[in-house]
Amino acid sequence: MSIKKRGEVWHIDIVAPDGSRIRRSTGTADKKQALEYHDRLKAELWETSRINKKPTRLFEEAIILMLKDGEHQARFDYKQAHAEYFLNIFSGRDLSTITGEELTNSIPTFHAKTKKPIANGTKNRYRSTILRAFSLAHKMNWIDAVPYIPRYGEPKVRVRWITKEKASLLIQNLKLQWMKDVCFFALSTGARMSEIFTLTWHNVDLVNRVATVTNENAKSGKARALLLNHDAMELVRKLRFRNNCEYVFTRSTKKRVRDIDRRDFKQACQLSGIDNFHFHDLRHTWASWHVQAGTPLYTLKNLGGWETLEMVNKYAHLNADHMLEFANNVTFTTQGLLNDTMGNVRNG
Questions:
Q1: Rounded Cα distance, 151 and 250, in Å
Q2: Residue 24: which residues within 8 A CB-CB, separation 6 or more?
Q3: Residues whose CB is less than 8 angstroms from the CB of residue 339 and which lie 6 or more positions away in sequence, other chains included
Q4: What's the pTM value of the predicted model, to 2 decimals?
Q5: What pLDDT was estimated at residue 265?
Q6: What is the structure's pLDDT at 280?
Q7: Which runs of E-coded beta strand occur in the chain?
Q8: Alpha-carbon distance 131 to 137, whole Å?
Q9: Long-range pairs for 237-244 at CB < 8 Å and ≥24 separation?
């Protein structure tokens, strides 16, 4: 028993969490008061041992961190939609009590409106958003570790490209002039859709033949230069005198473009005999043409704004001609000795 009476006064004998022993008088002859003192002191000792315990942080606070971190990045609207989705599930929860299993089970599997299954790529975007929130919370020392959420398997990188003849036919079959301009620019520069539709005249330098993709519009979050070749320059000069909008690509003289006309693009592909082709494949096509023309992969990486060389290695197989000269640097033997060797093999 950790409470004993000595004379008229009750005394306590407690072993603290750190192993030390505390013996003292309660200063009272009332057993009930002595027990309350005992329990209160024991609780305080346990709290003291947990001084390094992190203060309670709500799930909402981590979401705010994530949104502030990504507010100047491309497709911030996706992050906002993901934030709203997860807040409906975990709002009010202590951040440290949310497990990886709960987060994994919270990833949506069906579209709320259409009820159609969600692709693994989309699931992984939800996963990236929520992991970013917990990663930032961990960096702030709000939680001890970032919960584990397994990544969903996705198909291997899809590289679909078309020939210059097919590309020309595709543009001819587009009905909308602004769609022709957008697709032509994509094929000339390899720019992503988001980079094209956020490009403003303020960031176009016609003298130095370069357009700047600002950090808030770049996929990596880092500003990069978009070099304008002869075709792109010719198009940009025409557009400069055609519209009065802040943005380079417009539907009319003043109306900004935010997305492609998917019906026009699909019909043009059908008329051109091009199957299984998406707008982003124009970027793949641009990169493929570069590799086939002999552009080094490292140079292509910088031209296209890819983060790593690995991201452009998927185009390497399109042109192995430049490696043939190096393959001939090492031969097994001279031609004469090779003939002798092969003759001996046949005779044997």
A1: 38
A2: 11, 12
A3: none
A4: 0.56
A5: 96
A6: 92
A7: 3-6, 9-15, 21-25, 204-205, 210-213, 224-227
A8: 10
A9: 237/206, 239/181, 240/201, 240/206
Long-range contacts of 307-316 (CB under 8 A, 24+ apart): 307/220, 312/287, 314/157, 314/159, 315/159, 315/284, 315/287, 315/288, 315/290, 315/291, 316/291
| Residue 279 confidence (pLDDT) | 94
Query: Which amino acid makes up residue 41?
Result: L
Q: Give the CB-side neighbour count of residue 266, counting CA atoms within 13 A.
A: 3
pLDDT along the chain (348 residues), means of 10: 81 78 82 84 70 74 93 80 95 93 95 86 93 95 93 77 93 95 95 91 92 79 87 92 83 76 96 93 92 88 83 71 60 55 53
Query: Please, are residues 70 and 141 in contact by the beta-carbon 8 Å criterion?
Result: no
Instruction: Name the residue type at position 139.
Output: K
Number of other CB atoms surrounding residue 13 within 10 Å? 13
The DSSP bridge pattern shows strands 3-6 and 224-227 to be unpaired
Measure the CA–CA gap between 163 and 2, rounded to whole angstroms.
87
pLDDT for 48 equals: 60
> What SS3 state is found at 58?
strand
> Rg for the chain (alpha carbons), in Å?
33
